[in-house]
Write a structure and sequence with these properties.
Blueprint (H helix, E strand, L loop, with lengths): L5 H6 L4 E4 L11 E5 L2 E4 L1 H20 L4 E4 L3 H13 L4 E2 L11 H20 L7 H18 L11 E5 L5 H9 L4 E5 L10 E4 L5 H82 L1
Parallel strand pairs: 4-5, 4-6, 6-7, 7-8
Antiparallel strand pairs: 1-3, 2-3
Helix pairs in contact: 2-7, 3-7, 4-5
Length: 289
């Protein structure tokens, strides 16, 4: 079942592309028509591609892997930050730090520096610094938090990347392609859909269009996380039941062994009784003689 429909996308203005003179020829399969010099995106194909991308992202989230969301343009940054924060996924809404993926260890060092400053504030090291040094460190912490605060929990390279406007985020897309990280993206008529693995043909300039798509993707990721949580809980429950059953089965086995031993003992006693009686009668006859 599709996650959205034609009318919902139409109301959000997802079908509006760029001017005809700015188009990318590779977007031709996703263009429905041209009106007043503006290309109109085929929303039937958008529904299919959006559903395909949402299902793939759901599976990635269900497997417990991270998805990095990138949206530094003014119309998208607040929408992405607000929605993606709810599903606890890393995102970049300020300037893309060059080499963030290809030079990931250096970025991790900067994040560790941020946590080291936090530790200084709690363990009393700040009290031994001068006013000027405190101010410098505080400013450095604020700068790091602005740039890297949203990826503080990203301890390894992401398993996938979602991009709003690949033309603006071309450096991020290039880095992901170099590292073979799957790229999901909202692709407008002025972009090349061949640069990404899962293109979603849609208007990447209107905040209403971006909000609708990000919300649908956020719901898909949330579903994946909930399914993962439910699976873990069922596994834990079955494990507890197994642990409860094991001592009972051991007790049953020991009881069965005890019963077998007692039966064997009774059998031995029954077999010995006639021979014992025979020996006693033989002894009496010998005494009479």
């Amino acid at each position: 079942m599709p996650r959205t429909n034609f009318q919902e996308l139409l109301d959000a203005g997802v079908h509006f592309g760029h001017l005809k003179r700015k188009w990318n020829p590779n977007m031709a399969p996703y263009i429905f028509m041209e009106r007043n010099g503006i290309h109109i995106i085929d929303l039937q194909k958008t529904v299919v591609k959006l559903d395909e991308a949402a299902n793939a992202l759901k599976q990635i989230a269900k497997s417990g892997r991270k998805i990095l969301f990138v949206a530094t343009k003014k119309q998208a940054k607040d929408i992405v930050a607000e929605r993606i924060k709810q599903v606890n996924m890393p995102y970049v809404t300020e300037r893309w730090p060059g080499g963030m993926l290809t030079n990931f260890p250096t970025i991790r060092k900067a994040v560790k520096r941020m946590s080291a400053i936090d530790k200084m504030a709690t363990d009393g090291t700040f009290d031994n610094l001068s006013k000027r040094e405190k101010l410098q460190i505080t400013r450095q912490r604020a700068k790091l938090d602005k740039m890297l605060g949203s990826i503080a929990d990203l301890s390894r390279l992401p398993s996938a990347m979602f991009v709003v406007d690949i033309s603006k985020e071309h450096i991020a897309v290039r880095e992901a392609r170099r590292l073979n990280i799957p790229v999901f993206a909202i692709v407008d008529t002025n972009s090349d859909p061949n640069l990404v693995d899962f293109p979603i043909p849609a208007n990447d300039d209107a905040s209403k269009s971006i909000s609708l798509i990000i919300d649908l993707i956020g719901k898909a990721v949330e579903e994946g996380l909930q399914e993962r949580k439910a699976e873990k809980e069922s596994e834990a429950t079955s494990k507890d039941k197994k642990e409860v059953r094991q001592p009972r089965s051991k007790a049953r086995r020991s009881a069965a062994k005890k019963e077998v031993k007692e039966e064997n003992k009774e059998t031995d006693q029954a077999e010995k009784a006639p021979s014992k009686a025979k020996e006693e009668s033989t002894g009496k006859k010998e005494d009479q003689e």
